[in-house]
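Explain this one:

_____
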Amino acid sequence: MIHSTYAELFNPQFVQDPFPTYAALRAEAPIHRISLPDGRGLWMITRFEDVKAALKDPRFIKNWRKVLNPEEQKLMPVMPPVVQLLFKHLLALDPPDHTRIRGMVHKAFTPQLVEQLRPRIQQIADELLDAMLVGPNHTDLLTAYAFPLPLTVIAELLGIPLDQREKFRYWSGLVVTVDPSPDRFTRMAGEMEQFGNYLRELFAEKRANPTNDLTSALVQVEEAGAKLTEQELFSLVFFLLIAGHETTVNLIGNGMLALLQQPEQLNLLRENPDLIRNAVEELLRYDSPVETSTIRWACEDLEFAGVKIPRGEQILAVITSANRDPTHFAAPDQLDITRTEHNHIAFGHGIHYCLGAPLARLEGAIAINSLVQRLPKLRLAVPAHELIWRPGMLIRGMIEMPVEF
C-alpha cells in the first residue's frame, strides 16, 4: 500500500530504509500526492527522467509569495524576523535574484580552485585519524571524523573560527531536518536568533579587520550596496556554512556504511585506491546524502508527466529514488564501485545544481580513501538495523555511526 499522508509515509521505518517505498512509488504512482499536516498537498516525483524535468521546469518556483493569493498567504506559518533574515538563501530564490547572488560566489568553488585545497583537506583528514588512533579503538565516526573534516574546510574558507564547532553542528541539524509542521519556524526562532547574533558579530569583525576569506569579500560587496543587501549577506553566509558541510558529512557516513556492509567492495577499493573517484560517484548514487530537493511550488494549474497539479501545490523531487531508477541504471540496488554510469543527480540538476559539488567530491574522496587505507580493521560496532537515521525529508544521514577499529 502506498500511503497518502505525511505521517503514514515518513515514519521511522521508512526513514531507515526508504528504498522499497520508492520502488513501489516509481512502479505504481511516480507522481504521488500526499497530504501535509496543514491539509495542503505535496507531490512526490520519483522517477529519474521526471525528477530531472521537474528540477528544470520554470513552472515550479521557490517563492511561494508569487503563488499564493493574500488569503492563502495568511494561512502560511509566520516566520520570526531572524528566520526571515537567514532564509533568503540560494535554495529559496528564483531568477533573477538567484542568478545574481550565485554569480558572486560560484568562482570560489570551481574545480580548479577547489583542487588547490587538496593538501589542506588531506592534512585535516590525517590529523583526525591520528587523534582516533591514539584513543580507544571505538568511536562515533560522524562526530570524530565525518563532521569535523568538511566543517573545518568550509569554516576556513569563510574565515570562521572553529571554537563553536558543536554549536554549528546543532544549528545545522535544525535547519536541514525539514519538518512541515506549521509551528516549525516559531520553535526554531530562539536557536536561529543565536545563529543570527553570531553572524552579526562576525560581520562586524570582518568590516573592522578584513582578511583573505570569503566572508570578508562578501561583506565588502554588501557595503558597496548595489549587489548584496544585508538580508542577502546573512542568508548567503548562513547557507554556505550549512550547505558547505552537510552533504559531505553524509557522503562520508552513508558511503562508509555501504562499504562496510559490502566488504567485497571495500576490499576492492582498499586494494585499488585509484578507484576512489569512481567509488565516490557510485556512493553518491547508491545512497544519496541529499534525499530530496527543497520544496518548489506550482505557479499555475499545470500538467506534468500526465498528472494535473493545481496552482499552489508543493513539489518534492526525490533524488534518492531517481538514483535507484532501474530504467536508468542497470542493477540500481547493487553497489558497484567499478560502475561507469555516472549521470546520477545526487547534487541536483538545473539552476540549483549544488554549488559545492567539486568541494564535496574532493573531500569525500580524501576522507573515504584515508579511512579505508589507514583503518583496515574498521567495522560497525552495532548491527546496521540499530542505526538511527535523521528525521526529515531533505538530508539522508545517520545521527550516529558507532565503529570499532
